[in-house]
Amino acid sequence: MAAVPPGAPFPPSATLADIGEFPLIDALTALFDTAEHVLVGPGDDAAVLRIRNGHLVVSTDLMVEGRHFRRDWVPAEDVGARAAAQNLSDINAMGGTATSVTLGIAAPADLPVAWVLDFARGFAAECAKVGAVVVGGDVTRSETLVLAVTVMGGCTVSPVLRSGAQPGDVVALCGRQGWAAGGLAVLGRGFRSPRVLVEAYRRADPPYAAGQVAADAGATAMIDVSDGLVADAGHIATASGVVIDIRSDAFEIPEPLHAIGSALGADPMQFILGGGDDHPLLASFGSAADVPKGWTVIGSVRAADDDGARVLVDGAPYAGPAGWTHF
Amino acid sequence: MAAVPPGAPFPPSATLADIGEFPLIDALTALFDTAEHVLVGPGDDAAVLRIRNGHLVVSTDLMVEGRHFRRDWVPAEDVGARAAAQNLSDINAMGGTATSVTLGIAAPADLPVAWVLDFARGFAAECAKVGAVVVGGDVTRSETLVLAVTVMGGCTVSPVLRSGAQPGDVVALCGRQGWAAGGLAVLGRGFRSPRVLVEAYRRADPPYAAGQVAADAGATAMIDVSDGLVADAGHIATASGVVIDIRSDAFEIPEPLHAIGSALGADPMQFILGGGDDHPLLASFGSAADVPKGWTVIGSVRAADDDGARVLVDGAPYAGPAGWTHF
């Protein structure tokens, strides 16, 4: 990732309106790496990519200022890293590997250019963690800052869907869960510590290598936890037509969540069960013996009964906040 | 494209906030066709597509309410058709064929569900013109309505870039040009006629089959005209390092553009030279004999001189409005 050279043509206070569309595109493009599979990168009507195998895995996500992030809570580079992470994580959750990303930026004219370039640096750096590069994009003006990301990748084995969980499977989790929700609760009360939670909210740390490992290990269903653990387990339960029972004693509650639970008068399990934004992977496996290293068994799958497909916690419906809704 | 069944669960006045995210996604997904190459469509973490050849062509675009369209000027189905057309046209301009599209909708909570479904119908119908289908998407809340489209496709021959125009080439155009700009000018004055221009603005009619034909015929450079004819010719000139000279007498000015030129006191050529949104193709060919049927030769390419790569009209710099700027 190249830095904008010292003496770049934009004064620190420059806004998007000051510099205009094409200089902005040039500055962004200069930040982005290329890769061997990119035959034509940004700058033409479309990018042209060489695809190594016959399957293309594609996901798209929008992030809206004020709804998915706040510029006063999260530095631009971290917003960029998060915008990339949540999309890369979707490819991970299929058992695939992301290679190529497009980035759309709809932004107010008075947005500082420096914010956009810092955002792009964080975005590109997160993509580089998995070897993906930005191959195209669009910038335009909007009263509301909206970031639109589409990520493409391949998979070497069959993709792991949400619909394959079977009664008798175990359910396992890989990656930290509840930390981002804890950080969000801290920021929401106007605090800045515990710092480790705030950092977890500002920057996700998805287990990018784990998806392909789980696919190779025979995961029967998989999802990344972005809406909330119970909510996303519910997506597997519904798609598979099963009941997923989560055992709350399977979780070791990390100390910072205990601390903010006490400080805010909240059960720390609610961050784990209801929180999103950490992007761990949740998957089902035929038996505990199939579960790869680094994963924790947190529950089991059983057949849907008269009450239908759903998620239980310790055998009972979960009464806490289930997760995020978009409208 | 399936219609939402009569007795669909949404009352005519329902807003996005009334129905929520997942029912909206279900209703949208029900509208979209599938296709043989879509192994996994909307509803999982990512779509999985079978790709027929080793090259993937990708383009992405944003459309923002108030900037790229107005809901009071253009019916929802036409906004959808336009959102699809401008992206499909980018694949066309590479000489490729679009197969798969993702659709992101960031929308105010009080937007009527009916608007979104009509938009999606128009979007899907336009995609169907080239055999492309919607394979994934995202919906979320935003104060500003922003539509984010990414389109993917393949090409059977080498993609045609902007950078291949050579001195001595002829420059040719395929598809109507200036009509949409005329329609926009009409609407901007509060009029509704000539209706044929207003319709052209509301719904583009790109020559989708022409891109691949031009590629097969050996087009040396190609672009779709979305920003304006002089502006987009300028993108070819800059990328190729050449001068493009457009002959204004090559254009037969259509009668409705004469009519509104008279009514508004404007030179009708300004709609042709400066207008965008019609999405004709502009390409260079090694000789007039290479130009396929249905294309009109409108100029020529010569070597850049001391004044650099640029566009001329009748041998002189063009003084009119050159096209669209995004900030």
Structure report:
The structure is a homodimer. Chain A has two domains: about 15-155, 60s Ribosomal Protein L30, Chain: A, CATH 3.30.1330; about 160-315, PurM-like C-terminal domain (Phosphoribosyl-aminoimidazole Synthetase, Chain A, domain 2), CATH 3.90.650. The first copy, chain A, has ten helices and 13 strands. Chain A has helices spanning about 15-20, 20-30, 75-90, 115-130, 180-190, 195-200, 210-215, 230-240, 255-265, 270-275; strands spanning about 40, 45-50, 55-65, 95-105, 135-140, 145-155, 170-175, 220-225, 240-245, 280-285, 295-305, 310-315, 315. In chain A, the strands form three sheets. A seven-stranded mixed β-sheet of chain A has the order 8-10-7-11-9-12-13. The first copy, chain A, has a four-stranded mixed β-sheet with strand order 3-6-4-5. The model of chain A is unreliable at about 1-5 (pLDDT under 50). At the A-B interface, helix 1, strand 2, strand 3, strand 4 and strand 5 of A face helix 1, strand 2, strand 3, strand 4 and strand 5 of B. Strand 2 of chain A pairs antiparallel with strand 3 (about 55-65) of chain B, so a sheet runs across the interface.
What is the level-2 CATH architecture name of the largest domain in chain A? Alpha-Beta Complex
Strand content of chain A: 15-25%
Kindly state the mean pLDDT of chain A as a whole number? 91
Q: What is the overall silhouette of chain A? A: globular
Tally of DSSP helical segments of chain A: 10
* The level-1 CATH class of the largest domain in chain A: Alpha Beta
Detail the poorly predicted runs of chain A. 1-7
Quaternary status of these chains?
homodimer
Number of domains of chain A: 2
Number of strands of chain A: 13
Radius of gyration of chain A: 21 Å
Q: What's the story with the biggest beta sheet of chain A?
A: 7 strands, mixed
Roughly what percent helix of chain A?
A: 25-40%
What is the distance, rounded to the nearest whole angstrom, between the alpha carbons of the first and last residues of chain A?
A: 36 Å
